[in-house]
From TrEMBL:
Pfam families: Uricase. Belongs to the uricase family. It is found in: Peroxisome. It is an enzyme of class 1 (oxidoreductase). O2 binds at residues 48, 244. One of its GO terms (molecular function) is urate oxidase activity. Keywords: Oxidoreductase, Peroxisome, Purine metabolism. One of its GO terms (cellular component) is peroxisome. It catalyses: urate + O2 + H2O = 5-hydroxyisourate + H2O2. This is Uricase. Its EC number is 1.7.3.3. Its main location: other.
Length: 286
């Protein structure tokens, strides 16, 4: 059981600059006994309102150096404070506020919300077990207008989809990776310096002057994961899900107009979904 969608903005100053971190937090616990379920005995139950207050107080006291560190701090607090907690899982996602710049000069107190994917993380721990950290990005909508096709697929009497060697590839990406057991990682450094988001975009789009052909959504998802694993050594396992949006060319013959892939309409439902999980062999064997 737990508390979901605890939303708040953490504001502090660094010199003259205001610094913001707006997050949404979920906390889920499993207790050492199920007596509240089986007997209606609530003596071990930590109220979800108490969970919410703990989240807010820790944000006030510790700040949010990174969302991963805040998730770790929450896990450690629940494990060390409440002996009846057998398992804790925390989820934190960040609102994508970016500081405004005017003529290259960063503004001291103004920000813009940029919808270029939402950064999130999870931390979980069983009592007497390791603390494990995950991170990811979701709601990342991507499109390439060419260099994509789908040919040579299995066909039977129910197949009506035509083969295409030049189509729009568009979808919303969910990507989550594991750092394994919690170590002293600089999570912001991994995110910004190793540029995991940029690794994803690079694999999706290919070189800027020519792109890279994608024979399927499945191959694109695999290429994204392979690129991240090859360039970010801290990532042990990565999962990606790409929910597809198809675009159909509008037939304008009856209107006396030739439409050569210039006006298209999205087909948002039903949509396809491709998922893949890759990991380093030594980590999976362990």
């Amino acid at each position: 059981y737990g508390k979901n969608t605890i939303k708040f903005l953490r504001l502090h100053k660094e010199g003259k600059k205001d610094v913001v971190k707006e997050v949404e937090v979920c906390t889920h616990l499993r207790l050492i006994s199920a007596q509240e379920y089986l007997e209606g005995n609530n003596s071990l139950v930590i109220p979800t309102d108490t969970m919410k207050n703990i989240v807010l107080v820790l944000a006030k006291k510790n700040g949010i150096p990174t969302i991963e560190q805040f998730a770790i701090d929450l896990c450690k607090h629940f494990m060390t404070t409440f002996c009846q907690v057998a398992y804790i899982k925390t989820y934190v996602q960040e609102v994508p506020w970016q500081r405004l710049h005017e003529n290259g000069v960063p503004h001291i107190h103004s920000f813009i919300c940029v919808p270029d994917g939402i950064r999130f993380c999870e931390a979980e721990q069983c009592r007497n077990g390791p603390l494990v950290v995950f991170a990811g990005i979701k709601d990342l909508k991507l499109m390439k207008t060419t260099q994509s096709g789908f040919e040579g697929f299995y066909k039977n009497e129910h197949t009506t989809l035509p083969e295409r060697h030049d189509r729009i590839l568009c979808g919303e990406l969910f990507c989550k990776w594991s750092y394994g057991e919690c170590r002293d990682f600089d999570f912001d450094c991994i995110w910004y310096t190793h540029k995991i988001r940029e690794c994803i975009l690079e694999a999706f789009s290919g070189p800027p002057d020519c792109g890279e052909y994608s024979p399927s959504y499945q191959k694109t998802v695999n290429s994204i994961e392979m690129n991240v694993l090859s360039k970010v050594s801290q990532v042990q396992v990565i999962e990606a899900i790409l929910n597809n949006t198809f675009y159909n060319v509008v037939d304008m013959k009856n209107l006396g107009v030739t439409n050569d892939k210039e006006v298209l309409v999205p087909v948002e439902t039903p949509y396809g979904s491709c998922a893949c999980t890759l990991g380093r062999k030594k980590f999976l064997e362990a």
